[in-house]
Amino acid sequence: MKAVAYFESLAIDDPRALQDVELPEPVPGPRDLLVEVRAISVNPVDTKVRRNTQPEGGQPKVLGWDVAGVVVGVGSEVSLFKVGDEVFYAGSIARAGGNSERHLVDERIVGRKPRSLSFAEAAALPLTAITAWELLFERLQLVEGQGAGQQLLIVGAAGGVGSIMLQLARQLTKVSVIATASRPETQAWAREHGAHHVIDHSQPLHAELQRAGFASVSHVASLTQTDQHFDQLVEALTPQGRLALIDDPAQPLDVMKLKRKSLSLHWELMFTRSLFETPDMIEQHHLLQRVSQLVDLGVLRTTLGEHFGTINAANLRRAHALLESGKAKGKIVLEGF
């Protein structure tokens, strides 16, 4: 089958950084679905793995953790799906990625594709929706239908995770949603996706929050450059507030700064459940089922930002380069082989 892979960690401007390859057909395990990949999207984790993880034994490593496709085979213990079902999911970082014509995934982390979306539109959602949902409702412990009088500051709100988090927070809670974005086009994007207020993270955050009418915030979702903003986020949080992050800070965070205000710090990695096969792994199936339902009801919409064409090495290199530039808006999607 066709796939896109890499054999060594290289800069994205090197043609060998991602290559078109032919791989053997995958064979499902007991809980696996064999999915015919129709569309994928690209996430920062793809670029991080490519730069930092050398393939073992000279074998090709396939990236890609967002897939929309059709089930074409099932393992002996599969009970949630059948051949012909249209699905979407983010997969497991411990297994081969989805940048291939066919892909194996454990059914417990798969949802039914929203009927109202195309495969490309659906592929934009799984990884970021899971990340945003777990961060909001499990790490920050916001409660659906509640949150009046509370504030959520989303740092870097125009990216893939921010784009769906804005919608979830605005539609499912009563918190005041404050987004940060530094360019006119990303500020407009944040407003379109649900921000009550938009401030500029290239400026001092305290002054920007005051300009928006806030002396402090109860919750912070830091999606990018947490180490650069850390001191300002600690200052912005109310006593006993909550700070959650998803990025990999380049500099260590001094957690002692949280003590005076009794602030709590939370990490979110949506791969944790599948990586450790936790007893509640199936929660990601339920989560994606709920997201699919909310999309079909018109409560949530796709976060597709740009369509980069066919799934091949050249187009994926372009997608990686845009993500590494820090200028992507929404999700980058590719479709078909």
Automatic annotation (TrEMBL):
<dbReference type="InterPro" id="IPR011032">
    <property type="entry name" value="GroES-like_sf"/>
</dbReference>
<dbReference type="Pfam" id="PF08240">
    <property type="entry name" value="ADH_N"/>
</dbReference>
<dbReference type="GO" id="GO:0008270">
    <property type="term" value="F:zinc ion binding"/>
</dbReference>
<keyword id="KW-0963">Cytoplasm</keyword>
<dbReference type="GO" id="GO:0003723">
    <property type="term" value="F:RNA binding"/>
</dbReference>
<dbReference type="InterPro" id="IPR051603">
    <property type="entry name" value="Zinc-ADH_QOR/CCCR"/>
</dbReference>
<dbReference type="InterPro" id="IPR014182">
    <property type="entry name" value="ADH_Zn_typ-1"/>
</dbReference>
<dbReference type="GO" id="GO:0016491">
    <property type="term" value="F:oxidoreductase activity"/>
</dbReference>
<feature type="domain" description="Enoyl reductase (ER)">
    <location>
        <begin position="16"/>
        <end position="334"/>
    </location>
</feature>
<keyword id="KW-0560">Oxidoreductase</keyword>
<comment type="similarity">
    <text>Belongs to the zinc-containing alcohol dehydrogenase family. Quinone oxidoreductase subfamily.</text>
</comment>
<protein>
    <recommendedName>
        <fullName>Zinc-type alcohol dehydrogenase-like protein</fullName>
    </recommendedName>
</protein>
<dbReference type="InterPro" id="IPR002364">
    <property type="entry name" value="Quin_OxRdtase/zeta-crystal_CS"/>
</dbReference>
<dbReference type="InterPro" id="IPR036291">
    <property type="entry name" value="NAD(P)-bd_dom_sf"/>
</dbReference>
<keyword id="KW-0521">NADP</keyword>
<comment type="subunit">
    <text>Homotetramer.</text>
</comment>
<keyword id="KW-0479">Metal-binding</keyword>
<dbReference type="GO" id="GO:0005737">
    <property type="term" value="C:cytoplasm"/>
</dbReference>
<keyword id="KW-0694">RNA-binding</keyword>
<keyword id="KW-0862">Zinc</keyword>
<dbReference type="Pfam" id="PF13602">
    <property type="entry name" value="ADH_zinc_N_2"/>
</dbReference>
<dbReference type="InterPro" id="IPR020843">
    <property type="entry name" value="ER"/>
</dbReference>
<dbReference type="InterPro" id="IPR013154">
    <property type="entry name" value="ADH-like_N"/>
</dbReference>
